[in-house]
Amino acid sequence: MSYKLPDNKDLDAMVGIVGKEYATNNKAITASYLAKSVMGLEINYPKSDND
Prior knowledge:
Largest sheet: none
């Protein structure tokens, strides 16, 4: 299995799903979403004293 970066066609599809304000083909954000969807990874921020 290989991974390809999203192109304009993919970006148009994302705009239809989440709206123009939230759709992006930024490499870093795309990699983050891929990691979350494939491996179930999520960021967990440490609790601070203010929580």
